[in-house]
Specification:
The chain is mainly α. The chain contains seven helices and no strands. The radius of gyration is 22 Å and the shape is elongated. The two termini are 20 Å apart.
Length: 155
């Protein structure tokens, strides 16, 4: 699904920001001990390292939100839309971070965070709604009306 590809993008993007902050001048010694070089880097390159670290911090919560949404059978277009908005907000977040636009960085971060929360909220809503529909149908029908029960259960 598109959402699974978005998880992969969320995993890869922070490393692109880390490499970007090391350019130019990235060499074998830089790869050998990359953390030793970071204290000497300033400006947008240092902020790209911060974007890298922040990007690593959100991978697990985003992946969990996508998986939970899938497991609770949230409509795929909803999951994909929220996932694409999340990845877009992360790209903007990194760009605003490197450009030192703190207010816009915060807004893009909150947008991505809202997508994670929304994925969990629609998952909980879906998880609660489907069993409740089945219970209501069970209470309203004859036990002989198996076709109706099965159609509600497949929601």
């Amino acid at each position: 699904t598109i959402a699974y590809w978005c998880i992969l993008a969320t995993i890869i993007l922070p490393y692109l920001f880390a490499v970007l902050g090391q350019l130019p001048g990235l060499n074998y010694e830089g790869f050998k001990e990359p953390r030793r070089r970071w204290p000497s880097i300033t400006g947008w390159k240092a902020r790209s390292n911060s974007a890298h670290i922040n990007g690593l911090e959100v991978i697990s919560s985003f992946a969990a939100a996508i998986i939970v949404a899938h497991l609770t059978q949230v409509p795929q277009n909803t999951i994909d839309t929220l996932a694409m908005i999340f990845v877009s907000s992360r790209l903007l977040h990194a760009g605003f971070y490197m450009a030192d636009f703190a207010a816009w960085r915060t807004i893009s971060f909150l947008c991505g965070f809202a997508c994670i929360i929304a994925l969990f909220v629609v998952a909980v809503d879906e998880y609660v709604t489907v069993p409740m529909q089945f219970c209501r149908a069970l209470c309203r029908t004859d036990m002989g009306d198996i076709g109706y029960l099965l159609s509600v259960a497949s929601l």
